[in-house]
Amino acid sequence: MSSNGPWIEHFPGNLIWSNATLVTKGMAPYGAVALGEIDEVCERLRNRQNEPDAWREEWCAMGSRLEQAADKAAAEGHQMTAGDYYLRAGMYYFTGERFIYPGEQKRETGRKAIECQTKGLLRRYPNIEKVEVPYEGSAPERGAGAPESGGWDRKGALSALFMKAPGASGRAPTVVVFDGMDNCKEMSVLFAGLEFAARGFHTLAIDGPGQGESLRLRGLYARHDYEVPGAAAYDYVAARPDVDPKKVVVMGYSFGGYYASRIAAFEKRYAAGVAMSALHWDLAGWQREIKRRQEADPKATPQSAFHFRWIMGCLDDGDAAIRKAERFSLVDVAPRIACPFLIVHAGEDRVVPVASARKLHEAVGSKRKHLKIFSAAEGGFYHAQADNRQVGIDYIADWISENI
Question: Which pLDDT does position 285 carry in this prediction?
Fold first, then answer.
């Protein structure tokens, strides 16, 4: 596969749209999108690349069309069919939300995406539970799955999806998966959770601060000390009777590679750690370069101009966001990692230089550390294996099996 081919660069010269399209296409093997529907949307977008509202309009129009089909199927009692439609509708709404400037429209689109994705997941996968992870003083009154009206501080809780491995008996190994900068637990539970479940691992796919539902509906911004949500996630899974507390692994992908590294360094109860892309040696420097490139050409980077500022809680002050990012460094953190640790990176990563993976691997203190860089011949050579998630997840699942 060519790094400049149409699968990777759907909109030549427009990296911001091409990257977002690839992330969406990458969910096709898991039934969360359909390639024909994506092609239909992208063909309409091809001649609208200079229209500021085109991206939202086209993706959300497809989401709305499928949501209506899902409602009809559900009303007729065809719940599995409805689940398929809801899941795809939710993914398209989530894609459409990506470039909406933060405000009420973005919040409502994000809410609709999560609602549809959840309706789809719970219908299609009875082994998935929607759960709440107590966080920073929150305490559910009705257990981890308390409803929205549960009478407790949901802003202080982290929303998550727990996928049980079918057939697992007793206490099973569990992988806690934190998202990337612009992904969500509804994606993680499929592209990672399905394979882990086939290997006998449970998965907690969780939206930490600055991610998914925690950011969009609860106003929880990113924080550098991710061992705090990491500890909350561990406390939750370790308290479950179906989890082996001695075999819990923390994993993060894309920006989550920083989070997983930080958690593995400071939260010693995890048995192992995985960074599915190495983030970040110097987040502030990386974002300064992104900002420079955006100012020269807004289409030349994979991020919108506002997204990083938003997750940092500094929407109106880019300089403040970069100052906050200075604390997101693994320079003095990586040597503290003592558990088995895996770094998986893409050989032609256009988002994070492959040099970051080599630096992180060199600095990790564990005696049981491993670096895997995927080549074009192997597939999975784009950022966080978005071009071929399966090869990355298979490699990670095999490594986990051998190291816990």
Answer: 85
Closest CA to 223 of 322, 154, 324, 335: 324
d(C-alpha 4, C-alpha 366), whole Å: 37
pTM: 0.93
Compute the distance between CA of residue 321 and CA of residue 102 in angstroms, rounded to an integer. 15
Helices (H), 12-167: 15-25, 35-45, 54-75, 79-97, 104-124
Q: Quick one: average pLDDT of 30-42?
A: 98
Helix count (H) and strand count (E) of the chain? 15, 8
pLDDT of residue 168: 92
**DSSP symbol at 182:** T
Domain ranges of the chain: 1-124, 127-281+329-403
Q: Specify the fold of 127-281+329-403.
A: Rossmann fold (3.40.50)
Q: Is the pLDDT of residue 144 over 50?
A: no
For the segment 78-96, what is each residue's pLDDT rounded down to a tens digit?
Answer: 999 999 999 999 999 999 9
H-assigned helices in 225-384: 227-238, 256-266, 283-296, 307-311, 318-325, 354-363
Under 8 Å between Cβ of 208 and 177: no
Identify the residue whose tokens are 């930080």.
262
- pLDDT-derived band of residue 2, with 50, 70 and 90 as boundaries? low
Q: Which two tokens stand for residue 245?
A: 């507390």
Average pLDDT over residues 229-236: 98
Cβ neighbour number for residue 204 with a 10 Å cutoff: 29
What kind of architecture, by CATH, is found in domain 1-124? Up-down Bundle (1.20)
- pLDDT recorded at residue 155: 61
Judged by phi (left if over 0) then psi (alpha if -120 to 50, else beta), residue 198 lies in alpha
